[in-house]
């Protein structure tokens, strides 16, 4: 009997919305799940593979920033992008409770609630990008316009 394909919540949302994507899976047995390692395992340019970072603003709201895996978040630029005085990284222990995702499997699509989401301006340089597919070991390749639309996101300069 054939093994049933297991779809993540991210994939189910994209299927429901009729958005085209391609699934990429990678081996996690070596515990190398950092963004650059994931890009290498998927055979993709790290500039085209994006990580999802969750922050909390000084206003008490959560904000999601999606940047290339090799880059570092510029917290001041992020705060400006969402119109608050400051943002700080969400402690890892609060990630699942807040988003429904674990570290290494956090996707901007399908969080527990629709947070303000901002993509680094470099997203527009690519026909497709890769982001987490909602679980460790899975990435989805998607057109920038589609991911921005489904997350009601915007684009700004976010990296140092």
UniProtKB/TrEMBL annotation:
Q: What is one process in the GO biological process aspect for this record? A: translation
The domain of life for this entry's organism is Bacteria
One family from Pfam that matches here is: tRNA_edit
Which InterPro entries does the record cross-reference, listed alphabetically? Prolyl-tRNA_editing_YbaK/EbsC, YbaK/aa-tRNA-synt-asso_dom_sf, YbaK/aa-tRNA-synth-assoc-dom
Annotated keywords: Lyase, Protein biosynthesis
Q: Which residues form the signal peptide?
A: none
Q: Does the keyword Transcription apply?
A: no
EC top class named in words: lyase
The EC number of this protein is: 4.2.-.-
Q: Which family does it belong to?
A: Belongs to the prolyl-tRNA editing family. YbaK/EbsC subfamily.
Protein name in UniProt: Cys-tRNA(Pro)/Cys-tRNA(Cys) deacylase
Q: Which organism is it from?
A: Solobacterium moorei F0204
